[in-house]
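JOB MANIFEST
job_type = single_chain_structure
chain_count = 1
residues = 481
[input]
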Amino acid sequence: MIKKSIESLQLEAAQTGGNTLKRSLGGINLIAIGIGVIIGAGLFSLTGIAAANNAGPAVILSFILAAVGCAFSALCYAEMASMVPVAGSAYTYAYATLGELFAWIIGWDLVLEYSVGAATVGISWSRYLVTFLAKFNIHLPAQLVASPFELITLADGTQIHGYINLPAVLIIVFITSIIIWGTKGSALFNAIVVALKVSVVLVFIALGWHYINPENYKPFIPANTGEFGHFGWSGVLRGAGVVFFVFIGFDIVATMAQETKNPKRNMPIGILGSLVICTILFVLFGYVMTGLAHYTAFKDSAAPVAIAIQNTPYEWLFLAVIAAILIGYTSVILVDLLGQSRVFYSMSKDGLLPQVFSQLHPRFNTPFKSNIVLCLFISLFAGLVPIGVVGEMTSIGTLLAFVMVCLGVLILRKTQPDLPRAFKTPFVPVVPILGILTCLTMMVALPLDTWIRLIVWLLIGFAIYFGYGKKNSKLGQEQRK
């Protein structure tokens, strides 16, 4: 239960040169990183699901409610990031407020979430690539786009097993090489990718707006069917729970604190700015989508955007959306891998993981050995394991981290009220408490398999912590002297 002092973390943040991460990110870079992970394929699928099953055209209200729920945690992240601008995000904040064991739990769990996230997105990226290339009559060998445990049915009815999902492996390797190249280079690549996919979203909104049928908004909030969550105001609330996971990801911005110029100013800008911009885009996107087609048309559809686009003369727009999904997934992988390696970097610097994970490249000042080890693990995972086994990309660990950060703000306001805070969460303790309650509610609503995965992973983590981390903890060694 030993804790790091805020003062020691602030001294660590002030260090420059030597074995420290290079500060090269500004507020715009951080906003782009946040947008990069928030706008993924979920926007193109979950919007239709929530509209068809829960909220109807009022899905735009669901987006606003979900954003407000996320904002409680985002405001707490902004305060903590402005006080403790070092790599590690929720792991570091837990170390300062709750103690080493809780920090380990959060750090270890975030590693799982980022790993599973990157692998899952890599596999989905591969599938969308196959679909995209098929539109141009380019067909990749079936054995090279599926894992050995997947059975593929060919056009002639023959069934074969895959060898390896090669595109999934290659995209992980490609993104890792960009990350090793340097944070500034990664940020530039991410900015280009974000600009492209946001452009597609804006084009969909702009072109689709002219073909909106006002009759599709009637009724705006469909009458409840008699079952909670199926339309009516309860449906709007349930829809908020469905689309909540579209917003998860802004927390990765906080992992980049030690590579940010003037982090006390820029971290809150990055965290809150990306959330506000994405909320505006999502509301406009949902409004146009449910205006182009009646919400009932999206029922049981895997590609609701395609249904909406059918009500415009722009058939090419669906191809552009697939391209946007590919681009969107690329930036999600980039940010997941960035966040994961920075959490490992912080845990290694503290002695809880081997030193190899905090060794920086002599030229690029990036934790390149950590990147390479994680690349090998995640690329093989993506290439050899079916997507159904990799699991749903619902971030129970991220929600747990949100709870810890909100709790951390409450603890520090009570125990160290006079600490300088460049950004202060408003309406404390109301906002942190609402953040905790929102995230706990979302966690309870998650499928059982995500809880099982979390518990098994934590048991492995406890074995590593008590077998290695506790003995090698730098803070623990200092206290034992």
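[summary]
The domain at 6-476 is CATH 1.20.1740.10 (Amino acid/polyamine transporter I).
The chain has one domain: 6-476.
exit_status = 0
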